TrEMBL record:
One of its GO terms (cellular component) is cytoplasm. It comes from the Bacteria. This is RCC1-like domain-containing protein. GO terms for molecular function: guanyl-nucleotide exchange factor activity. It comes from Ilumatobacter coccineus (strain NBRC 103263 / KCTC 29153 / YM16-304). PROSITE patterns: RCC1_3. InterPro entries: Ran_GTPase-activating, RCC1-like_dom, RCC1/BLIP-II, Reg_chr_condens. Pfam families: RCC1 (PF00415), RCC1_2 (PF13540), WD40_RLD (PF25390). Residues 727-775 are annotated as: Disordered. Keywords: Guanine-nucleotide releasing factor, Repeat. Residues 733-775 have a biased composition (Low complexity). Residues 37-346 form the RCC1-like domain.
Length: 1158
């Protein structure tokens, strides 16, 4: 991000660094100025300490803190692993880079070109890795998704995930990824670089400035605006520059006379001249004469003065000026705190400073702890809010509202849909009184709206009305409106985009009803109240995200989404009319969370049902009927949210259970609580409410804990004045590197990758061998076991200690994998089903599995790219010795897991393809029969059960299924283990996935006794499962492998047919002849093929299907640009002996055949 500026406090020192030629001379030279040692980033910040270590803090969901971990929890300052010789650091958006004293550069975090190692995939790297092939560097800077360095020869290079604005400086303005360092054209004698967002400026030895990249606001300074430049342009009329600072849309400089100049976007007073005018050429800024360094953020500028003070001006909505306010100022504000400032670093919405003594202070937006760790987006312990006798409270995902002792409604938190009704659109951690509601008796809060029940029985609502949840029949938010047709309400409740009320014992609902949550027999929304069917004596109503529950004469009835058992009737099905919850006849309270529900019985026992991680009995999975919450037998009131519940107990104690990612368990940790934990709440609690956060009310106060993105449970995540950062030592004073050689020293680092110790085989839980209809064994599964592991390390073992630690494999290497006679595979097995994983490949390459007695065929079992760990499950024929061989074209580590073996005559029958499961909550999440769809993103360390038999043509007698399992929009590096619902799950990987890339793998999955499979996920991700066949039919024969299709020009196939067809265009279909080719029989039923996508032009998928059918709604292979990837597919062959391959985006394809059935 924008530079943490070098301390050039006295001009004589500067003159010693920049050798300035006399006027009229054409000979200039420069020495590189030192890089930055403290940098404020958008979501994380870093500092170089005096001992050469780096400490970073804030967001770590892409590994950008460099600790060897990827976490969803914001982190306090701690060292970056393996760095003890850093000179400077640069912080981008989700990645970090550093320059070492050797001149090497290391980067870590989100890749996609940002790390300079040639990898274009959006993978995450959690430990520093050296940028390969980079000439020794002096300093580094970073923008949103790119980085630039000054070399020891005073040239510059850049790299990054996009060049759409010309920010790479290679002379072009394109959207291409430049994943390796690229020289900046026409630039030499560079003393200093600074980057922010999408542009960079360079200070040259002749004291002039060149800039390139985005120029929408004139921030390049050449007198133009709106035209980006991929080539450095000269900033007009500027010389004698000693420092530069680049912001999001403007740039600034300090001259050798101590004055400041800025150009570009001057809105919000960022130039500090008393107005908001912009300028495409430099103008005098900040009104100072003693500036020594400068930096810029998003419409805000700060300069450090010789006095050690700082002066700032501009946009201040998030406290970026650090003056204790959020008031924007077009005139400079000079501040003496913190004292003795030597450098200042600004990013878009935050800032940090370093004192001469090395103390670091930060201020501004603190959404991820990048300014000050603790009490930020999560409050893991209750924080008290002093109020006057709150009469009622409610909290949902973004807002807390209450009714005070004056019958007024007061709200705090988010305001994007005008939930606070103050017209600002800005979140507030202070309560805002809702105008026009002065006689409230109750309040209810939905995701982006709220409603109040008035003492008259009317209901008024405000906020978002996109689903009609305000109930006035308009469908557009117009302020506080009265709900139509409800005049004598005794209760109101809201959740998601739905609102319900009780009137005369009947329940009326309005808003979103697409899951049936309006209860009127329809799956549709309504902008006015509709009466819920079959309820006449309601006393309580609770609204969840997509379902509703009510107490009706002591019984509990629920309706809406029931896919996770939250309706409590013993089923996992939705209902648009109320169903009766099993076994409860004396309920006194009811609550509805996102995917679960809870009630209190007449004895005080709390009971819950739905998604079992939330229901409080310690189990995981689904509880489709009520279960007792352990130890909670004296509950008086309940609260339920998106991922947990809390109970107020008769003695005033509070217990909570469920997920804890936001601290919503209130026990001071972020550790999930499958069983209740105690919350330290104030005495005298009288009521409780919750969602992603929970609040309790006493007679005089409200105490809240949990999510705090918008200040709903505590101080809004802003630090309005500089706060000290607790580092383990002082930050270093910037220095130039001492490197004088042009020889690059390469540092070897270790990178956390999928397929690491988390995918090492563990136990040897036996798996029942499935038996076909004739009694013959088919696709006999074994407990998934690792047979080959090239890496050396703790936990990196094989099932029997053989073939472990064999070493990283070089280019063109061949590995013999002993299979028969190991891990339950018999000596007479003819083929094996194995998962081959390439780990940390050194470059683009492929792996081919084949019988060892043959030479490697012209096929690939797995395609991989540099730095991207990928796996694929394949059926490989064994030689007479029971072995298979693995050819590796490019250097990589490798692991091989066996999951099944194939005796002669294995039976197989194709179906579909058909989608059996899709957890996404979008309209695209459609399954073949409507089951197992829209269940929501899977959470880390969770397991998802999917029924297979009896669906999509898979008979009850099937013993195994061939399914394509895909990880969608994964939040981090992780893996799936697909197994027949064993306990515990095998410790192997069926699919390794990475953040930001959809990854699929086709596997032969043994079924449990009841015809189901279970999918364990190690990280947060959505999941889809497509079935393509089952074991219970034709005869299987291993064959080849042979290449049947290669669309690339100049490439061939085993028989010369279907070669060089050209890149497949979006929406096109290849009709591929299979039967009768290369010795294949004419009566093929299925072909076992590996389909590989190469050089894709966009994100897309391929679907393999019989040519006589239209492409089904199932993906055989997902692909992304820059990553060649393959998948093994069991493809049904049509009556003409063909298969068809549909592609949704432009891509090259290869098809290799490994076996068939007849």
């Amino acid at each position: 991000m924008a530079s943490m500026k070098r301390l050039l406090a006295i001009v004589p020192l500067l003159v010693g660094l920049l050798v300035i030629s006399p006027i009229g001379s054409t000979t200039t030279s420069a020495a590189a100025l030192p890089g930055k040692t403290v940098v404020a980033g958008r979501d994380h910040s870093c500092a170089v300490l005096t001992d050469g270590t780096i400490e970073c803090w804030g967001r770590n969901d892409r590994g950008q803190l460099g600790r060897g971990t990827i976490t969803a929890v914001d982190e306090p300052p701690a060292p970056v692993v393996g760095i003890s010789d850093a000179e400077s650091v640069a912080v981008g958006d989700l990645f970090t880079c550093a320059v070492h004293v050797t001149g090497d550069v290391s980067c870590w975090g989100l890749n996609g070109g940002r790390l300079g190692d040639g990898v274009t995939a959006q993978t995450s790297v959690s430990m520093p890795q050296t940028v390969p092939g980079l000439a020794p560097a002096e300093s580094i800077s970073a923008g949103t998704s790119f980085a630039c360095v000054v070399h020891v020869d005073l040239t510059a290079s850049c790299w990054g995930s996009s060049n759409v604005d010309g920010q790479i400086g290679n002379g072009t303005v394109t959207g291409s990824v430049e994943a390796t360092p690229t020289p900046v054209v026409g630039l030499s004698d560079v003393a200093l670089l600074d980057s922010e967002d999408r542009h960079t400026c360079a200070l040259l030895g002749d004291t002039t400035v060149r800039c390139w990249g985005n120029n929408f606001s004139g921030q390049l300074g050449d007198g133009t605006s709106g035209t980006d430049s991929g080539t450095p342009v000269t900033v007009a009329g500027l010389s004698g520059v000693v420092d530069i600072g680049v912001g999001k849309s403007h740039s600034c400089a300090v001259l050798d006379d101590g004055t400041a100049m800025c150009w570009g976007n001057g809105s919000n007073g960022g130039f500090g001249v008393g107005n908001t005018a912009s300028s495409p050429t430099p103008v005098v800024a900040l009104g100072v004469a003693t500036a020594i360094s400068i930096d810029a953020g998003d419409r805000v500028t700060c300069a450090v003065l010789t006095s050690g003070e700082r002066t700032c001006s501009g946009f201040n909505s998030h406290g970026m000026l650090g003056d204790g306010t959020t008031t924007t100022s077009a005139s400079p504000v000079t501040l003496a705190t913190p004292a003795d400032v030597a450098e200042v670093s600004l990013t878009e919405q935050a800032a940090c400073s370093r004192s001469a003594a090395g103390a670091v202070h930060c201020w501004g937006r603190n959404s991820h702890g990048e300014v000050e760790f603790g009490g930020v987006m999560s409050n893991p312990s209750p924080s008290a809010l002093t109020l006057n006798a709150p009469a009622a409270i409610d909290i949902d995902q973004y807002n807390l509202c209450l009714v005070d002792n004056l019958a007024q409604v007061r709200c705090r938190g988010a305001n994007s849909s005008d939930q606070l009704q103050n017209g600002t659109g800005q979140a507030s951690d202070a309560f805002v009184t809702i105008t026009g509601v002065s006689d409230a008796s109750d309040v209810a809060v939905g995701s982006t709206h709220a409603c109040a029940r008035r003492t008259t029985g009317d209901i008024v609502c405000w906020g978002n009305d996109n689903s009609g949840q305000l109930g006035d029949g308009v469908g557009v938010s117009t302020g506080v409106v009265t709900v139509s047709g409800v005049t004598a309400a005794t209760e109101v409740a809201a959740g998601g985009q739905t609102t319900c009320a009780i009137e005369g014992g009947a329940v009326k609902c309005w808003g979103n009803g697409l899951s049936g949550q309006l209860g009127n027999g329809a799956f549709a929304q309504s902008e006015t109240p509709v009466t819920v069917s079959g309820i006449a004596s309601a006393t309580k109503v609770a609204v969840g995200n997509n379902h509703v529950c009510a107490i009706d004469g002591g019984a509990v009835k629920c309706w809406g989404s029931g896919l996770q058992g939250q309706l409590g009737d013993g089923n996992q099905a939705s209902s648009n009319v109320p169903v009766t919850v099993t076994g409860i006849t004396d309920a006194t309270d009811i609550v509805a969370g996102s995917t679960h529900s809870c009630a209190i019985t007449g004895t005080g026992q709390a009971e819950c049902w739905g998604s079992a991680v939330y229901v409080g009995d310690g189990s995981f999975g689904f509880a489709t009927e009520p279960v007792d919450v352990l130890g909670v037998t004296d509950a008086s009131e309940l609260a339920a949210g998106q991922s947990g519940s809390c109970a107020l107990r008769t003695g005033g104690a509070v217990s909570c259970w469920g997920q804890n990612s936001h601290g919503q368990m209130g026990d001071g940790t972020l550790i999930d609580a499958p069983t209740p934990v105690t919350v330290a709440v104030p005495s005298g609690v009288v009521s409780i409410a919750g969602y992603d956060s929970f609040c309790v009310a006493t007679a005089s106060a409200v105490a809240c804990w949990g999510r705090n993105d918008d200040g709903e449970t505590g101080g809004v995540p802003l630090a309005l004045s500089p706060d000290p950062v607790a580092l383990s030592g002082p930050a270093a004073t910037p220095t130039t590197t001492t490197t004088t050689t042009t020889t690059t020293t390469t540092t070897t680092t270790t990178t956390t990758v999928p397929g690491s110790t988390t995918t090492v085989p563990g136990g040897t839980t036996p798996t029942t061998v499935p038996v076909g209809p004739s009694g013959s064994t088919v696709f006999a599964p074994v407990a998934p076991a690792r047979l080959l592991e090239s890496r050396v390390g703790v936990g990196l073992t094989t099932i029997d200690g053989q073939q472990q630690g064999v070493g990283r494999q070089g280019d063109g290497s061949a590995v013999t994998v002993d299979i028969a006679g190991r891990a339950g595979v018999p000596a007479d097995a003819t083929a094996a089903v194995v998962n081959i994983t390439a780990i940390r490949p050194a470059g683009t390459g492929y792996a081919t599995g084949h019988p060892c007695l043959d030479d490697p065929p012209l096929t690939s079992s797995l395609n991989y790219s540099a730095g991207v760990s990928l796996g694929n499950e394949v059926i490989v024929e064994l030689d007479d010795d029971g072995n298979a061989c693995l050819f590796l074209s490019t250097e990589t580590d490798v692991a091989v897991d066996v999951v099944a073996y194939l005796p002669a005559g294995a039976a197989y029958s194709p179906v579909g393809p058909a989608r059996l499961a899709d957890t996404r909550t979008t309209p695209a999440a459609a399954t073949v029969d409507g089951l197992f769809e829209g269940d929501g993103t899977l959470q880390p360390q969770s397991e998802y059960l999917v029924e297979v038999t009896g669906r999509a043509g898979v008979p009850e007698s099937a013993t195994a299924a061939v399914v394509n399992v895909t990880a969608i929009r994964a939040a981090g590096v992780g893996y799936f283990t697909v197994h027949p619902c064993l306990d515990p799950a095998p410790n192997t990987a069926s699919l390794n996935y990475t953040a930001g890339a959809n990854r699929g793998n086709e596997i032969i999955a043994p079924l449990s006794a009841d015809g189901s499979i279970c999918v364990f996920t190690s990280a947060t991700t959505d999941l889809s499962i497509d079935v393509v066949g089952y074991i219970d039919g034709s005869t299987y024969a291993a064959f080849g492998p042979v290449r049947l299709l290669d669309t690339r020009p100049g490439q061939t196939t085993d028989d010369g047919a279907f070669a060089g067809l050209g890149k497949r265009t979006a929406g096109s279909t290849v009709e591929l002849d299979v039967a009768g080719r290369v010795g294949l029989p004419d009566d093929l039923a299925t072909a076992i093929i590996n389909v590989t996508a190469i050089a894709a032009d966009g994100i897309g998928y391929a679907t393999v299907h019989p040519c006589l059918d239209d492409p089904p709604n199932a993906a055989s292979l997902n692909f992304v640009p820059g990553v060649n990837g393959g998948n093994e597919v069991v493809a049904e062959v049509d009556d003409d002996g063909r298969i068809c391959i549909y592609t949704s985006a432009d891509v090259h394809l290869t098809v290799d055949l490994a076996g068939h059935t007849t």
